[in-house]
Amino acid sequence: MRYISTRGLDSQAGLGFSDILLAGLAPDGGLFLPESYPELTSQLDELRELLASDGYPGVAHRILTAYIDDIDSADLLAICRRAYSAENFGEGDIVPVTRLGDEDIWLAHLSQGPTAAFKDMAMQLLGQLFGHELERRDSMLNILGATSGDTGSAAEYAMLGQPRISVFMLTPKGRMTPFQQAQMFSIDDPKVINIAVEGVFDDCQDLVKTVSQDLDFKSRYRIGAVNSINWARLLAQVVYYVVAWLRVTTDSSEQVNFCVPSGNFGNICAGHIARQMGVPIRQLVLATNENDVLHEFFSTGVYRVRGSSETHQTSSPSMDISKASNFERFIFDLLGRDARRVRELFAVDLATTGEFDLSDTSEFASLRDTFGFVSGSSTHTDRVNTIADVWHAHRVMIDPHTADGVTVARRKESEVPTIVMETALPVKFASTIYEALGRDPEVPEGFAGLLELPRHVIDLDSDVSALKGLIVERLAELDR
Fold first, then answer.
1. Which end of the chain, N or C, is surrounded by fewer C-beta atoms within 10 Å?
2. pTM
3. What is the pLDDT of residues 317-361, one digit of tens each?
């Protein structure tokens, strides 16, 4: 399997998985994708048997081997078993799926990992892949990432104890919940550097992309990525779509919908890839909060990014994003993998006007019929009411982002089951849970006392030179 960039420059053709694993963003500014998507349709019954016999690690290994041919299969299986271990995800089934009463809506529980968020599903695998490849190359990696809430802690916990990895993680100052901040900032490790940036998540993400596009700096300081711009992380997420489908259906002909709370288009992009591989997904229902850039596109064909002043601070903060970094991968597929058009849209139109318009194209007409996408948005009132309703009707407590998903799923009529992708445990968003239910969420035993721990975080202006200077300074200290 070889990988190409969405922007299609010849110098980016023909790379193997291990090369793009460490590279993150493609040097031409595009995102890596495989030259083609492997077909899963004929393997669905076998995957069902594999899930019953070998569990989640076995299914993960089978799917990953279709994309990874430069890591020995036995080593890859060991990596999957370490990532998806009982120590990391508990003794029960990984990604159990439960039904909301007699509604034809199901919840795929993705938040059983070390940081109680769906990001653990990919990050635990990514940490093991990084460790394996760095050991093979006798090399080091300095991860530079940005988070709107849960990616940061999931990445940091996954990389802790990896001797060849340091992490620089950017967060939007004051825009995460106290629990999310405490999860990250309480880590006391010189190789984990938390940085609070003045601005919103998009400002953090822009800094990461700008540094990654400075090829000399990236090479000299061995900069890598864990955000969903990294193909390996997206690939890991494809697995849980397959497993969730297997848990709800009984044979290979049954279709489901997936409803996915989405801000950065990473999670639902994995669903798109699963559908392209042949998993019987009728619709991919994208749910946004008040930051509805993606809902606007799927409704109108206009993709218009917002500036910091237009990005709302909401009660589902991990989706407070107005510039979806994974969206380019889907547009590449939507446009028939026409890299020239993708370059024009993302490197020219977005860079100059901040938007592009596909409303009058034949591709826009194919969004629903060919690619199965529909969308909806949710407000603070919606999510608070949904949290209360799901609790009182079903005695199930859901977090605000999952509530956005349930809200939108309930509005879409469907003849097939709809699986809502859970995003996090409610404990991360205590104030909104209290507003909805008049009670605090339970604090899992492993998180007791977290909010009282000392904080380790550096404040920084949204300035790429300042960020580069901090990276150089900290790496010099680690080398002493």
1. C
2. 0.92
3. 889 888 898 999 999 999 999 999 999 999 999 989 999 999 999
Burial of 479 (0-12, 13-18, 19+ CB in 10 A): exposed
For 349-400, the pLDDT digits (tens) are 998 999 999 999 999 989 998 999 999 999 999 999 999 999 999 999 999 9
Q: pLDDT (tens digit, 9 = 90+) per residue, 54-90?
A: 999 999 999 999 999 999 999 999 999 999 999 999 9
**Structural domains of the chain, ranges and CATH numbers in brackets:** 97-115+231-437 (3.40.50.1100)
| Given the residues 119, 218, 323, 428, the one annotated as active site | 119
Question: Is residue 147 within 8 Å of residue 119, measured between CB atoms?
Answer: no
Catalytic residue status for 119 = yes
